[in-house]
Specification:
The complex is a heterodimer.
Chain A: E1 4-15, E2 18-30, E3 35-39, H1 46-53, E4 63-70, E5 73-74, H2 80-86, E6 91-94, H3 98-101, H4 108-119, H5 124-137, H6 143-146, H7 156-168, E7 174-178, H8 186-203, E8 206-211, H9 214-220, E9 223-228, E10 231-237, H10 238-243, H11 248-255, H12 300-303, E11 308-310, E12 316-318, H13 323-340
Parallel strand pairs in A: 3-8, 3-9, 6-7, 7-8
Antiparallel strand pairs in A: 1-2, 1-4, 4-5, 9-10, 10-12, 11-12
Helix pairs in contact in A: 4-5, 4-7, 5-7, 7-8, 11-13
Chain B: H1 2-33, H2 38-42, H3 52-61, H4 68-80, E1 83-86, E2 91-94, H5 109-144, H6 149-163, H7 166-180, H8 197-230, H9 234-241, H10 246-274, H11 278-283, H12 289-298, H13 302-330, H14 332-336
Classes of the chains: A alpha/beta, B mainly alpha.
């Protein structure tokens, strides 16, 4: 069993319009010192998954089933109070937009001190020293001077560094980063990703990066999980996903990645259509209305849901097409097209 | 921060000057546009049987023939350094701040106002304490339990509270609690705090609650709306992700952010009230500024009306100045802009 092991996680929200199946039977694991990238479009259930792991849906309207094992301890059945005690200490989270994710009325230092003192019985002075120390470690210059600044007085990149400092203040063993670089300038994105990689090595934590940007996970991930409509459609090592992808949706994501070495006149290959409604998930394979290869499955993709099946070496794919057919398509059509660009 | 304070102070002073001009204009200039002669203005200061010569003389002594600017200057001078009134028989000293003399009693206006301020201030202060505590806590609980029975009942009550006027709730409460049950004294009871604090509170209890009910309703609704908004903010999620206990999340992170608009409303409400809680004071016959202004208007006692108007406006300006300064303490983002 992995350090974090999620089994058949389902997170459903009853609404007036029907049951929203934000996450529907997701399983994954991540070891300490390793990084898992969860990739998918907006509304594919990535963020809901991460909040679910942290137990932040508890007490709400969500219906959660499945198992979440963290370091040999099952969290889904545990009491809300027990999970609260682990939150911030054993598992922490970095959020997307650091401006709206930090409280505008409290100084950055105050918020880090607060995070530290929830789980450590120390005086304010000790916690403050720790906060300054943390700010220095995430690369904020003159941390002793910046500790009393408010979030709006920081630049976007500095704010995200402060957010990371806050998340790491209690030395968490599991760190979830939800779109950590989306709200940042491109130049700052690379810095933040480098920082996260360095800190992960230093703290030896398990890291989950949630993003819609394959470029981000390419930098950091050991494993990659591709989500579509609340489900896993492809799961494998980073090499599997980048060099031997077998699901048409993954191909689409790869084709949508802007690349610098591409001719400016050439167009991206976007995936047609928009992500599915999570209330009326398409019948059969959820991706079939947007899939260019539905005609190759004898109509099964409209009626029958494909199983998530292992191909080899832990590489999982949810597709009706035969393996050899997928490999042929990749080698003969998709890969040359991506490379020619 | 210092420039912010200075800017607000200048703004407040400018506002007071404009208010004094408008008040002066309403009571002295506008009647003349409408055709009132200086003699007509002066006739208010003399007895009914006065001859035209006397009226003319009084108008001259009071300066009603002077240009408007000169009259306004004299009016301001009266407020800041005091005034002298020459009634022919002798010179009367009116020390600053001088708002003139009542037509009816002949007494200077300012000491009367000062006498009545503690009543209105006591009424407003006690009521404010009740309505802020009650309104905000009901609002918070309603927001956290949206759609629950508590939420529906309290919001229904709040709607009633906003809609029912004081002279209705006040009368009902008097009938029930004073005349019916005899728990509280009937209207008109006033004891100064310095004389007997317990009696002071006992006499004011019913007016406090009635007045607070009206305001608490609005505060409960505002707090509920504010809490519903802030509890959906990203930083609330962050606070929970840190492992903070839910009650700390609600109070320290949610309520703190939701309080800012409530503070603004409170400044204006409180400023307005200490200038005279007209309906409450009338219903419970409390000798405060509100009752004073009603009597002044009914008697067409011009100096009294002007005095109470200016003082009430001054309270609102000062209250909103204080709120602006507090704002900078509460919301650090204000200090920069």
């Amino acid at each position: 069993m992995s350090f974090l092991d999620v089994k058949d996680l389902k997170i459903h929200f009853p609404t007036d319009d029907g049951l929203v199946k934000s996450v529907d039977g997701l399983s994954f694991g991540v070891e300490r010192g390793k990084t898992l990238g969860i990739v998918g479009e907006s509304g594919s259930g990535k963020s809901v998954t991460s909040l679910g792991v942290l137990g932040l849906h508890k007490g709400g309207r969500a219906r959660i089933s499945g198992e979440i094992w963290l370091d040999g301890e099952e969290l889904n059945g545990a009491s809300a109070e027990h999970v609260r005690g682990l939150r911030g200490k054993k598992m922490a989270m970095i959020f997307q937009d650091p401006l709206s994710s930090m409280h505008p009325y409290y100084t950055v230092g105050h918020q880090i001190i607060e995070a530290y003192r929830i789980h450590h019985d120390v005086s304010k002075q000790v916690a403050r020293k720790h906060a300054i120390d943390m700010l220095g470690r995430v690369g904020i210059p003159e941390p002793a001077g910046r500790v009393d600044s408010y979030p709006h007085e920081f630049s976007g990149g500095m704010r995200q560094r402060a957010m990371i400092a806050m998340a790491l203040s209690c030395d968490p063993e599991l760190l979830i980063a939800d779109e950590p670089t989306t709200a940042l300038d491109v130049t700052v994105q690379a810095q933040i990703l480098d920082l996260m990689r360095d800190l992960q090595r230093e703290f030896n934590s398990a890291l989950i990066i949630i993003t819609h940007d394959l470029g981000v996970v390419a930098e950091l991930s050991d494993d990659i999980l591709v989500m579509y409509g609340g489900r896993c459609v492809e799961y494998g090592s980073a090499e599997d996903i980048f060099y031997r992808p077998e699901h048409p949706y993954t191909w689409g994501l790869l084709g949508s990645m802007p690349r610098l070495d591409r001719e400016p006149t050439e167009r991206l290959m976007p995936i047609k259509g928009s992500p599915p409604s999570l209330i009326n998930v398409p019948s059969g394979c959820a991706f079939h209305p947007r899939c260019p290869y539905t005609d190759r499955t004898d109509g099964r993709s409209q009626t029958e849901e494909p199983k998530l099946a292992e191909t080899e070496g832990g590489h999982l794919v949810r597709c009706h097409m035969g393996r050899s057919e997928r490999q042929q398509l990749w080698e003969n059509e998709i890969k040359p097209m991506l490379e020619s660009q | 921060m210092v420039t912010y304070i200075i800017r607000r102070l200048i703004g407040a002073i400018a506002m007071l000057i404009v208010i004094s001009m408008v008040t002066f204009g309403i009571f002295y200039v506008v009647p003349q546009w409408a055709g009132a002669t200086p003699e007509a203005l002066a006739s208010r200061y003399v007895g009914r049987a006065a001859t035209p010569e006397t009226v003319h003389l009084v108008a001259e002594r009071l300066g009603f023939y002077d240009p408007v600017v000169v009259q306004y200057g004299r009016f301001l001078k009266g407020i800041f350094v005091g005034a002298e009134y020459d009634y022919g028989a002798g010179v009367e000293q009116c020390p600053a701040p001088c708002f003139g003399y009542s037509f009816i009693s002949g007494q200077p206006v300012w000491p009367d106002l000062v006498d009545r301020m503690p009543v209105t201030f006591s009424l407003a202060l006690g009521a404010a304490l009740i309505w802020v505590v009650a309104g905000v806590s009901v609002g918070v609980i309603s927001a956290l339990r949206r759609g629950s029975l508590f939420d529906r009942i309290s919001m229904g009550t709040a709607l009633a509270g906003v809609s029912l006027p004081i002279f209705f709730t006040g009368m009902i409460s008097l009938v029930v609690f004073s005349y019916g049950l005899g728990w509280t004294p009937p209207g008109g009871a006033w004891t100064d705090f310095t004389v007997n604090p317990a009696q002071w509170a006992y006499n004011l209890l019913l007016p406090w609650i009635t007045l607070a009910f009206l305001f608490a309703a609005g505060y409960a609704r505002l707090t509920r709306a504010g809490m519903l908004e802030t509890m959906g903010e990203d930083y609330i999620r962050t606070a929970r992700a840190k492992g903070l206990r839910e009650n700390r999340v609600v109070v320290k992170h949610g309520l703190r952010a939701a309080l800012t608009p409530i503070l603004t409303l409170f400044g204006i409400d409180f400023g307005l009230l200490i200038g005279g809680a007209v309906l409450t004071e009338t219903t419970y016959t409390l000798p405060g500024l509100g009752q004073y202004s009603i009597l002044a208007i009914r008697n067409q006692d011009l100096p009294q009306v002007m005095g109470v108007t200016l003082v009430a406006a001054g309270f609102v300006v000062v209250a909103s100045l204080i709120v602006d300064l507090l704002y900078a303490v509460v919301d650090p983002r204000v200090r920069l802009s």
